[in-house]
Design brief:
Blueprint (H helix, E strand, L loop, with lengths): L1 H15 L4 H12 L3 H20 L2 H11 L1 H25 L2 H9 L4 H13 L2 H14 L5 H29 L6 H23 L9
Helix pairs in contact: 1-9, 2-3, 2-9, 2-10, 3-7, 3-8, 3-9, 4-8, 5-10
Length: 210
């Protein structure tokens, strides 16, 4: 069981280290010091739900749906990421110190942040590929006690990663007191979103022949 726990932890941590929309959003909220606990817990709990669903059998039901509607799912996700990246790029171009002061001092609605992180999490096709398909497949040969240990290790890796990312970013927030620093940060986030959007488009059969 210890080996299964370690395997789940290592696999999950390796997958989640990849820069993605969700990670970029958590990083930004950490830098802003806004609703960090809520965002971190939401991401970790969402991962835990999907990991457990995959390990304990839902992945086999999900695979045919993902295969049949892959084009629609990936194009929809690409459009969402492109839209969010456009917002971040616009903010980077337009940033002034007054805008920065207003953004830092004024907390957005808790529900708006929750909806945003929910969209970043649940509209990302890769989270389903990683949890309901890949992690689920790697756990197929395990007995039930080992499956539980494997899922526990994977969930713990997710929690540690998001806590490190969110609260680690909060420690860096004193460095983000100028409009220029936020221009750089939001430009990087916009670039990540655009790259992810393009990569998702090229994973559909509509664009693969290009």
């Amino acid at each position: 069981m210890v080996a299964a726990f370690g395997s789940g932890f290592a696999i999950s941590f390796g997958l989640i280290l990849a820069i993605g929309a969700q990670n970029a959003f958590v990083l930004r909220q950490g830098l802003l010091r806004q609703y960090i606990v809520m965002v971190v817990l939401f991401c970790a709990l969402s991962d835990a739900v999907l990991i457990c669903a995959g390990v304990f059998g839902l992945g086999r039901l999900f695979a045919p749906i993902m295969q049949e509607y892959q084009n629609v799912i990936f194009v929809g996700a690409a459009l969402w990421l492109g839209w969010y990246g456009g917002i971040r790029l616009y903010r980077a171009i337009m940033y002034r110190q007054k805008m920065l002061d207003a953004e830092v001092m004024t907390y957005p609605s808790r529900w708006k942040v929750l909806v945003a992180v929910g969209l970043m999490t649940w509209l990302n096709p890769h989270v389903y590929l990683d949890t309901l398909l890949l992690i689920a497949t790697l756990s197929l040969g395990l007995e039930m006690p080992e499956k539980i240990a494997f899922a526990g290790g994977a969930c713990l890796a997710s929690l540690i990663f998001f806590c490190t990312l969110g609260f680690g970013a909060a420690r860096l927030s004193p460095l983000m007191k100028t409009a220029r620093s936020w221009q750089i940060a939001d430009s990087v986030i916009a670039g990540i979103m655009f790259v992810l959007a393009i990569s998702m488009l090229f994973q559909t059969s509509w664009f693969q022949h290009w």
